[in-house]
Amino acid sequence: MKTKCIGILSSGGDAPGMNAAVRAITRSAIYNGFSVKAIYRGYEGLITGEIEEFKTQNVSNIIQKGGTILKTARSKEFRTPEGRQVAYETLQREGIDALVIIGGDGSLTGARIFGEEYNIPCIGLPGTIDNDLNGTDTTIGYDTALNTIIECVDKIRDTATSHDRLFFVEVMGRDAGFLALNSALASGAEAAIIPEDQTDSDQLEEFINRGFRKSKKSSIVIVAESPKDGGAMHYADRVKNEYPQYDVRVTILGHIQRGGSPTANDRILASRLGAAAIEAILDGQRNVMVGIQDNDIVYVPFNKAIKKDKKIDKGLIQVLNQLSI
Question: pTM of this prediction?
């Protein structure tokens, strides 16, 4: 069956650059003769039928905006077979032949299941600040989030220095340390505590034993949020109990990392991937994520993209240790 109408949705956590992707998908689709329908609030909008036809003017003046004009939500109902049946009936009623989904691993997992159950061509775009999807060197929103963190840490450094304090700064990333490690390098932090380095060694003890106070009055440690060990608060409490001589503070950056106007890198990446998603549909691809490797566009099967084993460059940890003396 020839594809005539493409549906677009954003799902899961928002990421800067999603709007640039929506713009690119919409305009590339129209350029190639497709009609476009925007689905609001992620998979929930497929169930409730919150859908609008998009023309080129609908995506004017959005490339610079953070968040997503399509809104986003996490849908419990879509996780059930009954919910996905309703979503499919909505697609049929709206005449949508293919779906482009912008989101992270949960969103792409939903796309994989839905595409297999109903034989709908589903193309995914990696939209997550965590950079934790396999098969792509970077994800939409990661570069902007990294720059936001650096800006915040630079400001925290001013007060840490003024008061001779040890600051633990918690950043997002769930089970991935890309944001923590690279923001630590870029901001001149003294250490990064990341999930990928959770070996038998005690990361906090190693940091303290490196003698960070020999040459510095203040220090900043970037901590990846982690439900397993309690994040920055856990390490701050440990320092208070085990090393009471240090004046410790905690800053949890939270959702500030998700917002803001996307960087040039994220706008370009989202534009390239959005256009490539339409190319993928023209090529007859389905159940793939469009990624970027060595500056080339690649198609990555959903099963591979959502595996939880994206490798972090452990050599960067050694670089950070050397530069923080």
Answer: 0.94
For 148, residues 6+ apart whose C-beta sits below 8 A from its C-beta are 253, 256, 257, 259, 260
Q: What is the pLDDT of residue 213?
A: 53
- Taking only the tens place, the pLDDT of each residue in 124-177 is 999 999 999 999 999 999 999 999 999 999 999 998 888 888 999 999 987 889
Cβ atoms 310, 60 nearer than 8 A? no
Give the fold, CATH level 3, of 5-141+262-305.
Rossmann fold (3.40.50)
Long-range contacts of 186-189 (CB under 8 A, 24+ apart): 186/146, 186/150, 187/149, 187/150, 187/153, 187/154, 187/157, 187/220, 187/222, 188/157, 188/220, 188/323, 188/324, 189/153, 189/220, 189/221, 189/222, 189/320, 189/324
Same fold, 5-141+262-305 and 143-258: yes
Contact 212, 165 (CB under 8 A): no
For residue 226, the model assigns a pLDDT of: 80
Q: By the 8 A CB rule, do 269 and 138 touch? A: yes
The strand pairing partners of 289, in sequence order, are: 124, 300
Class of 143-258 in CATH: alpha beta
Q: How far apart are CA 233 and CA 293, in angstroms?
A: 36
- Count of CB atoms situated within 10 Å of the CB of 144: 25
Tell me which DSSP letter residue 39 carries.
Answer: E
Three-point CA angle 318, 323, 325, nearest 5°: 105
Amino acid letter, residue 181: L
The set of catalytic residues is: 130
Q: Which amino acid is at 115?
A: G
Go through the chain and tell me how many residues it has: 325
Task: Answer yes or no: are the C-beta atoms of 87 and 47 closer than 8 Å.
Answer: yes
